[in-house]
Specification:
Number of helices: 8
Strand order of the largest sheet: 1-4
Helix content: 55-70%
Oligomer: single chain
Number of strands: 6
Shape: globular
Structural class: mainly alpha
Radius of gyration: 18 Å
Largest sheet: 2 strands, antiparallel
Distance between the termini: 41 Å
Strand content: 5-15%
């Protein structure tokens, strides 16, 4: 299976199926195009430089015969993965947040300081080679978590229960398909910079990565949905 076939089968097709289900079964549901576009642009802008560094550093690498072309050192399909993951998560989360609500966007010192746990653990794991990948994930995650928790933690905590089970399900789904891609050799995680803890074919670091990427998306949908509905942005 090529990388393109992988994202078409495991991401694009589920998006189409969900879209059709929503169209025929949920007449009051409107696809949140604005949120998808905003978060896709953010995901690409924030992740591409970081991902490029991971590849250049040999933390993960890919089978050149299974990809089509590159953007810098990144497979084009990797960028497609970012956009399709964003799209799939947003349409899943948004359907569970259809009831109108308001978002309280104001600085919260508690949320600000809570986010520093990521920074602390990220710095700690950076002190040894096998913790490098986990360290980079935690340090990369710090900024979006810090922003979201610092300015919207009350709204997030209030609405997160609405999407708790969808969040667990879709995060687990990403982990399963990531483990499958690794087993097929589409991409490989370097053992030198990984802790060596695996769940079947899935390295711990990959599970942490998908937990945080999905958390960013869930929290962003919670915060953006009422703002867009009320034409604040």
């Amino acid at each position: 299976m090529t990388y393109l076939e992988f994202i078409l089968f495991f991401l694009f097709i589920p998006i189409v199926i969900l879209g059709l289900i929503y169209k025929f079964l949920l007449s009051d549901y409107k696809l949140p195009f604005a949120i998808i576009v905003i978060l896709s642009v953010v995901a690409l802008s924030y992740t591409i430089p970081w991902d490029n560094y991971l590849i250049e550093s040999g933390i993960w690498y890919y089978d050149r015969s299974l990809i089509s072309s590159l953007i810098f050192s990144i497979p084009v399909e990797e960028c497609g993965f970012m956009v399709l993951q964003t799209t799939l998560s947003v349409i899943i989360f948004s359907v569970f947040l259809r009831t109108p609500y308001t978002a309280s966007i104001k600085f919260n010192l508690k949320g600000f300081f809570l986010s520093f746990f990521l920074l602390t653990f990220g710095i700690y794991y950076s002190t040894f080679m096998s913790g490098k990948y986990l360290s980079l994930i935690l340090l990369w995650s710090f900024l979006p978590v810090c922003l979201q928790w610092s300015f919207g933690i009350d709204t997030i905590l209030n609405k997160l229960r609405n999407i708790f089970f969808p969040f667990i399900f879709i995060t687990a789904y990403y982990c399963v398909i990531d483990g499958y891609a690794i087993s097929q050799g589409i991409w490989t995680i370097s053992e030198m910079t990984s802790l060596g803890i695996h769940f079947a074919n899935l390295p711990l670091e990959e599970a942490v990565f998908f937990f945080f990427t999905n958390l960013f998306l869930a929290q962003a949908v919670i915060l953006l949905k009422p703002l867009i509905s009320n034409n604040v942005i």
